[in-house]
Write a structure and sequence with these properties.
The structure holds two protein chains of two kinds.
Chain A: H1 2-8, H2 13-39, H3 58-63, H4 66-69, H5 72-100, H6 108-120, H7 123-136, H8 146-168, H9 173-180, H10 185-214, H11 229-239, H12 244-277
Chain B: H1 2-35, E1 39-40, E2 45-46, H2 52-59, H3 61-95, H4 99-110, H5 117-122, H6 125-128, H7 133-140, H8 155-179, H9 183-191, H10 196-207, H11 209-224, H12 228-233, H13 241-250, H14 254-276
Antiparallel strand pairs in B: 1-2
The chains are: A mainly alpha, B mainly alpha.
Chain lengths: 278, 285
């Protein structure tokens, strides 16, 4: 009842201005994306801008022809694999680091400041530094070695900061209870800690996958001979002048949305299960 | 004894992260510093200890104009993202009343961040181009009779794309700070006779400062180091420090690129140190 009367309270005029501003902001965020989504269905003779010259799936078909866009399939599968590896490593390592940071240890602030530094050092410097390092020691840069390392320097800080936020609000008495009941360290983590931080770990997983999947600057000098998808897209921006570019944009954005929906869905299911158990 | 084992387990748990940072962050940055003193010819980089790269870099008027240009992008992007970010966060934190709606609207703002930056830049082309939506609309409405040329491939386009890409970096930390403001403070301000604007000025803005500082650090550092937005959105007509580095990399002039990188890193660290005086990051999590 209290809630009901609260929502019926008259809103101040400023609310409507701010709501309009917010709506414009959302339009600003999504509007351009919507235009390329529409234009990717451009007819066969259509160009890079409106008007639409018919409606077709021509440019999507074009995506899968080697000569039209370079190596879309190969770069997509590399980005996908790299994203998945980055995701698994980030989730495991951030979770471990989060556990470590619950107690003070010597050097903890060094790691913390390294994570912050990793976040603010311009990406091109990471790319250049790793590229130079591999050059000097004469290792061949590869997407699954140098590019993987470069991506991890970008995803670890996010993973660690999310873990900080989680464990700062985590009540240790649950673990104490488990231990009092005779659970081992590993059992405590498996049956008490993991189920409680699970949704946040899904968040870390989604974050690290999408950050890696879309990363460009850190991959530039570290991918070696074979392109990841963002490198491929970047190459296309300079030499492709047909709507196939938009088709690629639509497909890869759609894929990102799918990943986000998957992650949100998983969190929702986990929450519901937890609710049923309780 | 018990604390000994738990300490040991802390070290065990932190080792993977520490190793990755050592190999892929610390050593590469040290490599850049070392190589910035090396020599090079058309084919190779040659170990040496010379100051030529720095002399050339700092003695060139081009460098200074590029830095000025980069700072201009950073400053403009900072102002716009701050204004937009603060307004959006304020709306979400104080005017949206149910938690569910707050989460939903917050997600709506966040989702584009998880998609490709390059695609988000490209998506402005059909909107801003010579025959783009905006120009067509302006001509049809009779506001202009020639398409506006400055919309795409210009400083305007660079800043617009930067704001579009990074506004979220401001929204999230400011929203986070605002959600922690004790609502009774605002009621107290109102009871004491403060108008909405006075409450905003003397209660909400000061208490949002940590979020503003963190957002500013993100936006400024990312724009200072950016090269791809500048290259794509200025159509190669403008330069930034990051773009200069990436061009030198393209020409295999690694020691020159390394010297530029060191100067950029020092600049960014100075800016961040100044901003960190305003906030203790570790307290804000």
């Amino acid at each position: 009842m209290a809630l009901l009367t609260k929502t019926r309270e008259r809103r101040p005029t400023s609310f409507y201005f701010l709501a309009a501003f917010f709506a414009l902001f959302v339009l600003f965020l999504y509007g351009p994306m919507l235009t390329i989504f529409i234009l990717s269905f451009q007819g066969e003779n259509g160009g890079l801008t409106f008007p639409m010259n018919g409606f077709s799936f021509h440019w999507f078909g074009n995506l899968f022809e080697q000569q039209a866009v370079g190596d879309f399939g190969g770069s997509f599968s590399r980005s996908l694999k790299l994203g998945l590896i980055v995701m698994v490593v980030t989730v495991v390592v951030s979770f471990m680091a989060g556990l470590a940071f619950r107690k003070r240890f010597r050097g903890d602030s060094v790691i913390f400041y390294l994570a912050i530094a990793s976040l603010i050092v311009p990406s091109i410097l990471i790319s250049l530094g790793i590229g130079l390092l591999f050059n000097i020691v004469e290792w061949q840069p590869q997407w699954f070695t140098s590019a993987l390392g470069a991506h991890l320097t970008w995803t670890f800080p996010f993973g660690l900061l999310i873990m900080f936020a989680v464990f700062n609000r985590f009540d240790p008495s649950y673990e104490e209870a488990a231990r009092d009941l005779g659970a081992s360290n590993w059992q405590t983590i498996q049956y008490v800690v993991l189920p409680m931080v699970g949704p946040s770990l899904i968040g870390v997983a989604m974050f690290s996958f999408t950050l890696s999947y879309d990363e460009f600057a850190r991959t530039l000098m570290t991918a070696g001979a074979l392109n990841t998808l963002p490198l491929e897209i970047y190459g296309m921006t300079t030499n492709v002048t047909t709507p196939v570019l938009y088709a690629l944009g639509t497909v890869t954005t759609g894929f990102s949305f799918l990943v986000i929906a998957l992650a949100l869905g998983t969190v929702a299911i986990m929450r519901r299960r937890k609710g049923q158990k309780a | 004894m018990a604390s000994d084992t738990s300490k040991r387990s802390s070290y065990f748990l932190i080792t993977p992260m520490a190793l990755i940072f050592a190999v892929f962050l610390v050593i590469p940055l040290l490599t850049i510093v070392v190589v910035s003193f090396w020599d090079y010819d058309e084919y190779r980089i040659l170990p040496d200890f010379i100051f030529e790269n720095y002399n050339y870099l700092l003695g060139s008027s081009v460098t200074w104009s590029i830095y000025l240009n980069t700072l201009k992008y950073a400053a403009l992007t900072w102002v716009f993202t701050l204004l937009i970010g603060f307004t959006v966060a304020y709306f979400l934190a104080f005017h949206v009343r149910s938690l569910t709606w707050q989460i939903v609207l917050f997600m709506v703002c966040t989702i584009p961040f998880w998609t490709s930056n390059i695609i988000r830049m490209i998506s402005w082309i059909p909107f801003l181009g010579r025959n783009g939506l905006l120009n067509s609309a302006l001509i049809n409405l009779g506001i202009v009779d020639q398409p506006l040329e400055f919309l795409l491939f210009s400083d305007f386009a660079v800043v617009l794309a930067d704001v579009h890409l990074y506004a979220l970096f401001m929204v999230v930390p400011i929203f986070n700070s605002m959600m922690r403001i004790d609502r009774s403070l605002i009621e107290a301000a109102r009871d004491a006779g403060a108008s909405g604007f006075e409450t905003l000025k003397s209660v909400i803005v000061p208490l949002s400062k940590p979020g503003i500082a963190i957002g500013s650090i993100f936006v400024i550092t990312v724009v200072m180091g950016d090269f791809i937005t500048v290259r794509l959105m200025s159509g190669g007509q403008s330069a930034s420090v990051g773009l200069q580095i990436s061009n030198e990399i393209g020409l295999l002039q690694y020691p020159a690129a390394a010297a530029s990188a060191v100067v950029l890193l020092i600049t960014v660290l100075l800016i961040v140190t100044a901003l960190l005086r305003l906030v203790d990051i570790r307290k804000e999590l």
